[in-house]
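Narrative of accomplishments. A recurring question from our advisory board has been how the design workflow behaves on a single, concrete structure rather than in aggregate. To address it, we present the structure tokens for one chain from the evaluation set, followed by the sequence designed for it. No filtering or post-editing was applied between the two.
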């Protein structure tokens, strides 16, 4: 496998071991992956729609949604909506940045809008850039090493273009 054969998104994982275990349990499960694929990327997805939209049991779906919230993949909330003459509370979920990165990781690249690709790459680069600065300070690495690498990669790319 060459350098060009790798996935375009790099997924930063949380430092907490428990959160990483929860994420792996979600990603290794058909239920978890199915729910991730059904979540809207940047707006609320209602629990009732996730339950109605799959063949899994309500209990399994709710368990995996709880895992995703605990792992920092989703945020959740409640709102009151009119249901006939009364109001009922409905639960909704929105992916965090980490959750959105996992959803994008699972989606076929052709289904991802170019603007979202650009935004995601910038977010991930920001996460890694801030980590590089911190690590460089901690280990006495000259930050110019990373600038040179980025500049060299850019130069190589522009030389290859017609």
């Amino acid at each position: 496998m060459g350098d060009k054969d790798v996935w375009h998104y790099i997924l930063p994982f949380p430092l907490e071991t428990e959160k990483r275990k929860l994420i792996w349990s979600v990603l290794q499960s058909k239920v978890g992956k199915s729910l991730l694929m059904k979540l809207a990327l940047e707006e609320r997805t209602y629990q009732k729609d996730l339950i109605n939209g799959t063949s899994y049991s309500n209990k399994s779906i709710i368990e995996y949604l709880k895992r995703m919230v605990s792992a920092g993949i989703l945020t959740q909330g409640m709102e009151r909506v009119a249901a006939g003459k009364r109001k009922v509370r409905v639960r909704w979920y929105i992916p965090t940045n980490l959750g959105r990165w996992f959803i994008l990781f699972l989606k076929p690249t052709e289904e991802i809008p170019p603007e979202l690709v650009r935004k995601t790459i910038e977010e991930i680069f920001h996460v890694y850039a801030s980590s590089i600065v911190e690590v460089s300070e901690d280990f006495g690495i000259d930050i110019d090493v990373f600038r040179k690498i980025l500049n060299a990669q850019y130069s190589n790319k522009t030389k290859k273009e017609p």
